[in-house]
Amino acid sequence: MYTHYLFDLDGTLTKSESGIYNCIRYALDWAGIADPGEEILRKFIGPSLHDSFSAHFQMSDERAAEMVKKYRERYNTTGLFENEVYDGIYDLLGELKHRGKVLAVATSKPYEATIRILEHFRLAEYFDVIIGSRPDNISSNKALLISQVLERLPEASKTGVMIGDRMYDIQGGQACGLDTIGVLYGYGQYKELKEAGATYIVHTPAEILTI
User: What share of the chain has pLDDT > 90, as a percent?
Assistant: First the structure.
């Protein structure tokens, strides 16, 4: 039986593509780069922004860092609230807390933005520990972020589960010795989650309660 539940943020707790896409386009427009279309933009959700700009636009580390700075220029004022909580999330979190579970967030999103989002949507009250990346991180390693949760909640290493929508969440959880739940209502695909080795794969937040 799991006693500790670790959640990703984007694509797991909140549907965030509108704000993310708008801020990527803002940065690309500043750089004089044409909109690559939703197929590419969707790939930005999950890995670090720096890595995504580098990989999809063949940028140097220095140029990618400039793009991230420009992205955050809009995101930190407007983009982070172009967002909505997935149907069923409040019910899921409320029921888990009712059952006495310990909840945490482990996201590659910068900590300050994470707190603002969780507080704005009245989600922060459900979580015992919230871990996000530092703004100056070039790359946000999901396993490292999860390990920071485990340092604060040692029991989670024995009876915890990592929940997320992308392979990075699954691989990060595995690297820390956790079982994992891949969610299909976010931005990942069944094939991605299956090949990453998710312990369980669910279609809705409510299904998490059945595991």
Answer: 89
Degrees, nearest 5: CA angle 78-13-107: 75
Whether the Cβ atoms of residue 151 and residue 171 lie closer than 8 Å to each other = no
- Residue 136 banded pLDDT, cuts 50, 70, 90: low
What is the spatial distance between Cα 105 and Cα 76, in angstroms, rounded to a whole number? 19
Tens-place pLDDT, residues 46-96: 778 888 999 999 999 999 999 999 999 999 999 999 999 999 999 999 999
* All residues at 6 or more sequence positions from 61 whose CB lies less than 8 Å from its CB, including other chains: 50, 54, 138
So which residues are the catalytic ones? Answer: 8
**Model pTM above 0.70:** yes
Q: Which segments of the chain belong to CATH 1.10.150.240?
A: 17-81
- Kindly indicate whether the domain formed by 17-81 is annotated with CATH number 1.10.150.240: yes
- CATH tag, 4-15+84-208: 3.40.50.1000
What are the backbone angles phi and psi of residue 15, rounded to the nearest 5°? -90, 105
